[in-house]
Specification:
Protein name: Glutathione S-transferase
Number of domains: 2
CATH class of the largest domain: Mainly Alpha
Number of helices: 8
Pfam families: GST_N_3
Number of strands: 4
Strand order of the largest sheet: 2-1-3-4
Helix content: 55-70%
CATH topology of the largest domain: Glutathione S-transferase Yfyf (Class Pi), Chain A, domain 2
CATH architecture of the largest domain: Up-down Bundle
Oligomer: single chain
Organism: Aliidiomarina minuta
GO molecular function: transferase activity
Bound molecules: glutathione
Domain GST N-terminal: 1-73
Largest sheet: 4 strands, mixed
Structural class: alpha+beta
């Protein structure tokens, strides 16, 4: 089994956590943008090859790995909704990060302003969900990967979201989370 990705991507990190948790042997194939453009129709990482099985999104990869291990992926609609909510925030945060890095002025564009507003409204909803208590399942893992990535890239300030900060502290006690931390420069 080969997982294609980078050590900084939060989506790839979640796959690596599940690979560790399920003790699935795999080869990590470090992949840059040129390679992912050739290797996946999404032109994104992660993607996974396991024999004739080719998967192109972290969600399908995680579902596959959990299934192989006889485990569940987002067992309830609420858990899957939380997973989707985190993805909405993460997708917008990454889009703004990549656009800004490519030299686009993200401050004066109505569509990009909507993406920034989406991040804020998702953070408020995530704070509310986290305050009620979370589990170390794929929704909770995705949330922790998002928070630590946003801090690592200095994209978001979590001071107004204490339950999200608390969730990150709890995640930092999980072995697989610690083992997959993005490289510190
Ligand atoms: N929905 C995808 C999102 C993956 C994604 O956005 N990956 C980023 C890296 S963190 C990427 O490869 N972006 C390249 C691009 O947008 O051109 C998943 O869950 O796998």
């Amino acid at each position: 089994m080969q997982l294609f990705g980078s050590y900084t991507s939060p989506f790839v990190r979640h796959c690596r956590i599940v690979l560790l948790e399920t003790q699935t042997p795999f080869e990590f194939m470090q992949t840059d943008y040129t390679q992912s453009a050739a290797g996946s129709p999404t032109q994104k990482v992660p993607y996974l090859h396991d024999g004739s099985t080719h998967l192109h999104d972290s969600a399908s990869i995680i579902k596959y790995l959990r299934q192989q291990a006889g485990e569940e992926f987002c067992a309830t609609a609420e858990s899957f909704d939380l997973f989707c909510l985190v993805n909405a925030a993460l997708d917008s945060t990454i889009n703004l990060f990549l656009l800004e890095n490519s030299g686009i002025d993200i401050a004066n564009n109505p569509y990009l302003e909507r993406q920034a507003n989406r991040i804020e409204s998702c953070l408020a909803a995530l704070q509310e969900r986290a305050a009620k208590g979370l589990s170390w399942d794929d929704a909770g893992i995705r949330l922790a990967c998002f928070i630590e990535w946003a801090e690592y890239r200095k994209r978001l300030d979590f001071n107004a979201y204490p339950a999200l900060q608390d969730w990150l502290s709890l995640a930092q006690q999980q072995d697989a989370f610690v083992q997959t931390q993005p490289p510190q420069s």
